[in-house]
User: Fold this.
Amino acid sequence: MYIVMLGAPGSGKGTTAKILAKKTNLPHISTGDMFREQIKKDTELGKLANSYISKGQLVPDEVTIHIVEDRLTWEDAQNGVILDGFPRTLEQAKALDEILEKQAKKVDIVPELIISDDVIIDRILHRATCSNKECGAIYNTKFKPPKVEGICDICGSALVTRTDDNRETIQNRLEVYRNNSKDLISYYQEKGILVSIEPEDPTAENASEQVVNKILEIIKRK
Ligand code: AMP
Assistant:
C-alpha cells in the first residue's frame, strides 16, 4: 500500500504518518526528515537543502525526486510506504507515479488533513521534537507537553525545536503549501484516491490517533 499524506506544515501529517507507519508496518518516508539528517551531517546535499529550508522555500524538484527515487529502491519499501511531505508539487507527483509505474505499482490512497491556519500556527510555534532519530516523538509544549520540560517522555532524549519553526518562515511555508497543494489535490482527486479528513477537535491530545483510525477504516474498505 503506497500512501501519500497531504496537509499543510503543522497539520499533524508527520505525527499521523508515524503512527500509521507503526500500525501498518510500512516505512515512514519524510523528505523533511531526510533533508534534516543531511543538514546535521553537513553533507553537500544538506548544505544545498538548508539554503532553501531556512527560507521556508522548497528544495528543487530534481534534488527531491532523486532522493525519493533512491529511497523507494530499499528493501523495506517494496510492499508500500507512507510518504510524508512528498510529493509537494505536481511535477513531484507525476515523477512519483512514473517511478512506481516502472515497478507496476501505484499510489493507493492520499489522505489530506484539513486544519485551520490558526491551529497550525499555534502548533508550529509550540512544536518540539525528540532529538533521537529512532524515536522522533513530537510534542506540543502547550497542548501535549512532555512530563519533564525539554525531555522526551518515551526515550529520555532532549527535545529540540526545528530551526524553520519560527514566525518568519511559517507564513511563507503555508503560502507555498497553498499554492502547490491546489494542483496536487486536483491531481489526486481526478484519480479518485484523495480522502479529505478533518479532525473533530484538532487540539485534542489524541487527534492524530483519531485521524489514523479514520485512515485505517478507509484502507479496510478499499
Ligand atoms: P517538512 O518537514 O515536511 O515540513 O519539510 C521541511 C522543509 O524541507 C520544507 O519546508 C522544504 O523546504 C523541504 N522539503 C521537504 N519535503 C520537500 C519536497 N517534497 N519538495 C521540496 N522541498 C521539500
